[in-house]
Amino acid sequence: MKAVKLRNLATMAMITVAVVACSDSDPIRGQFISGCMHAGAPKSDCQCIFGKLEKKYGREDLDRLSMEYPPNNALMESTMKAALACRK
To answer: What are the residue boundaries of the structural domains of the chain, listed by start?
Structure first.
C-alpha cells in the first residue's frame, strides 16, 4: 500500500513538473511542489524531493528530463528513492 502511494506521488510529481506556470519565478520547482502536495505529500517532503533531484541531475538536465514523454524511467525511480529518503 505504501509503495503504491509513493508510486502515485512520484507519478503525479513528475507529470506536474512538465507543466510550467508562467506566474512562478521558478516554474519547474513551483509546479513540482504543487503537484506533489496535491498528491498528498507535505510541502516539506516535496521540497526535499525536488532538492534531491536537482542535486542529482542538475537544473538543466532536470528541466530537460521532466519534459520527456513518456516520463523518463530513471527520473521516476530517482523520484521514488528521493521520496523514501525524505520520509525518514
So the answer is: 2-86
The full 3-state SS of 20-53, as one line of letters, equals CCCCCCCHHHHHHHHHHHHCCCCHHHHHHHHHHH
How many angstroms separate the CA atoms of 41 and 32, rounded? 11
> What are the pLDDT digits (tens) for 39-87?
999 999 999 999 999 999 998 898 888 888 888 889 999 999 999 999 8
User: Model-level pTM?
Assistant: 0.71
| Element holding 79 (H helix, E strand) | helix 73-86
Cβ proximity of 65 and 75 under 8 Å: yes
